[in-house]
Design brief:
2 domains; alpha+beta; 441 residues; single chain
Length: 441
């Protein structure tokens, strides 16, 4: 390898010319992928505003049985096998009335640690709860936090003076059984013997304007999509406990009453995979004896997916054409260079070098040139991709690192350079050295 490096340094112009060929081949393969994959990723992220990455499940009226925690476990296992990136969460709701304000009714929502990611929830302060903590933890929704911070809903001596919501962090919340299957809850200590005490560790950002599927209701397109879904009879029922912002979130394992039924299951996946994952989830529940209703937003499949998928196919075509062209140009360039080095091979053979010495020297030269050109080509490709994306900000173009394409391209040019260098060298090294030296003269 050291000999190959010295040989490359001894002939910088020859090395530069070969690297330049590899550089532009890499650029042709990587730059389009950076723009196309980046733009598709950006489109997927933005489509979350319309809930196109979400699937909602609930038990159908007349189902042999409701959804339960075992169904949730089965869905997690089955869907994770289909795609490890999928997030599945289950929610069980309980009606609650909050103390110090008889007019304030809300809900206790039992869930799990996957809920923020599955529902694209954001936190205004603190963090999400962790199950199994020494003191059970809760997350409070923003509207309820505002109620508790207001003087009308403040208990004397609870230490709340109307400061920002972060002052709620670390405070105690109690939850106790109420009448007719409901629950009572309040801020601060409780004198009830049957009350369970929790500690506030987070406050959710407002969810107003977002429906259960994740529709941004102020989005221009959302009302049309919601109307189409209702017309088709697949729009989800209203769920105020997911929208009103008056809920306390607890971990299911810390709230014994939530160990049975589950009201809703929410699945988050790639928008282009919603149909397949929805069918798989429905099949899983049917085999377990539960008839589910499956809701999803078809806007991605109808409007965006065909165009973006078509762009990715176009990228594959560009990649194949660039790879084949680059491989042929690179091979010809190295073969031509190798032919001009026949005298050098003859001299080394006359000095006692074996065929394997010659072979491995040229092999390492090809590998080093290929890797160097691949690195430089990737850098140039990303620079050109960024420049292209910034040239026209009115067009939705974004850039991301296409690691899969970079790996494949690097592998192609490195193997091509190694074969095109070592193959002729092995063939030439078998010729009589005297004959090769005579050619040199």
């Amino acid at each position: 390898m050291s000999g190959a490096m010295r040989e490359l340094i001894r002939h910088p112009i020859r090395t530069l010319l070969i690297c330049q060929g590899i550089l532009w081949a890499m650029t042709l393969m990587v730059a389009p992928a950076a723009i196309l994959e980046g733009s598709r990723s950006a489109a997927v992220d933005r489509s979350g505003e319309l809930g196109t990455d979400r699937i909602q499940l609930e038990a159908e009226d007349g189902s042999p049985r409701p959804l339960d925690t075992e169904d949730l476990t089965a869905l997690n296992r089955r869907l994770s096998e289909a795609d490890p990136q999928i997030r599945v969460t289950g929610i069980t709701s309980f009606n609650a009335r909050y103390s110090a304000s008889r007019s304030t009714s809300g809900w206790v929502l039992a869930g799990d640690s996957r809920q923020p990611e599955a529902r694209s929830l954001k936190l205004q302060a603190g963090r999400w709860f962790q199950g199994g903590a020494t003191v059970p933890e809760v997350v409070v929704e923003s509207a309820l936090a505002d109620r508790w911070l207001s003087t009308g809903d403040k208990k004397d001596g609870d230490g709340i003076t109307g400061d920002p919501v972060s002052t709620l962090l670390g405070k105690e919340v109690w939850i106790a059984p109420g009448s007719f299957g409901s629950w009572r809850s309040g801020l601060g200590p409780s004198d009830r013997d049957d009350a369970q005490v929790f500690r506030i560790v987070g406050v959710m950002a407002p969810t107003a304007g977002i429906d259960p599927l994740g529709f941004g209701k102020d989005h221009t397109f959302s009302s049309m999509v919601e109307g189409v879904l209702k017309m088709l009879g697949v729009a989800p029922d209203s769920a105020p406990w997911l929208e009103a912002g008056l809920s306390v979130h607890v971990d299911r394992s810390d709230f014994a009453a939530a160990e049975g039924e589950i009201d809703w299951v929410v699945i988050k996946t790639d928008p282009s995979d919603v149909q397949r994952i929805g069918d798989l989830a429905e099949e899983t529940l049917l085999t377990r004896g539960c008839t589910p209703l499956v809701y999803s937003n078809a806007a991605w499949a109808i409007l965006a997916s065909p165009e973006l998928d078509g762009y990715l196919v176009l990228h594959d075509v560009f990649f194949v054409i660039s790879a084949v062209t680059g491989f042929i140009v690179l091979a010809n360039l190295l073969l031509l260079t190798g032919r001009r080095r026949r005298g050098e091979v003859g001299l080394r053979r006359a000095e006692g070098a074996t065929r394997f010495d010659i072979f491995f020297q040229f092999l390492w030269e090809g590998i080093l040139i290929g890797l160097t050109g691949a690195v430089l080509g990737t850098i140039v490709a990303m620079i050109l991709a960024v420049v292209r994306a910034q040239m026209d900000p009115s067009v939705l173009l974004e850039v991301s690192w296409p690691w899969g394409t970079i790996f494949d391209s690097t592998l192609i040019v490195t193997i091509g350079a190694a074969l095109a260098s070592a193959g002729p060298a092995w063939s030439v090294s078998g010729v009589d050295p005297a004959s090769l030296l005579s050619e040199r003269r």
